[in-house]
């Protein structure tokens, strides 16, 4: 055989071998591509499951927190209503006490006025009149009542603010989610 033919045969064999290697490499690449596609699909499914689990857990936590907030709000409302009730009762007690003292004052004032002028002149100038004592006592009790009422009003406002802020915070958290 001539050297050209030998060289030509050798080149044909080399080309055929390269073609076989290319086909084998192509098959290997296809198999690897399928394997990677399957892995990617599996990872996507796993990621989606994790996202769903996280969303469910978040929803559960939100519902739990919402129920806690509602419970706290109901407790605050009950406490607020109880304080209002106590405030009304104290107001009634103070009013009845004031009326009682006014009646006592009126009776003692009438007695004092019915005394003779002679017994009034015998009193010392430094001794305070009974009507002044009762006026001061009545005024003191009224001031105490007003302070206590104001204190209760302030506590009611604070509880209403807390209740309002808790409700607003709860709604804002829901909107953010």
Automatic annotation (TrEMBL):
**Organism this protein belongs to:** Triplophysa tibetana
Domain of life according to the entry = Eukaryota
Coiled-coil region list? 16-104
Q: Which InterPro entries match?
A: CCDC152 (IPR038827)
Question: What protein does this entry describe?
Answer: Coiled-coil domain-containing protein 152
Q: Among its keywords, does the record have Coiled coil?
A: yes
Going by the UniProt record, its keywords in alphabetical order are: Coiled coil
């Amino acid at each position: 055989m001539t050297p050209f033919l030998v060289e030509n045969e050798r080149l044909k064999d080399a080309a055929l071998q390269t073609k076989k290697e290319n086909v084998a490499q192509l098959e290997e690449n296809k198999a690897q591509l399928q394997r990677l596609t399957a892995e990617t699909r599996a990872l996507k499914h796993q990621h989606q499951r994790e996202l769903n689990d996280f969303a469910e857990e978040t929803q559960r936590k939100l519902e739990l927190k919402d129920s806690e907030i509602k419970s706290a709000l109901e407790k605050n409302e009950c406490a607020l209503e109880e304080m209002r009730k106590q405030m009304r009762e104290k107001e009634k007690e103070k009013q009845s006490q004031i009326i009682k003292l006014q009646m006592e004052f009126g009776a003692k004032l009438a007695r004092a006025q019915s005394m003779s002028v002679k017994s009034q002149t015998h009193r010392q100038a430094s001794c305070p009149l009974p009507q002044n004592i009762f006026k001061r006592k009545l005024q003191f009790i009224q001031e105490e009542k007003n302070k206590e009422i104001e204190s209760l009003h302030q506590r009611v406002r604070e509880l209403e603010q807390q209740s309002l802020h808790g409700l607003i915070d709860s709604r804002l958290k829901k909107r953010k989610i």
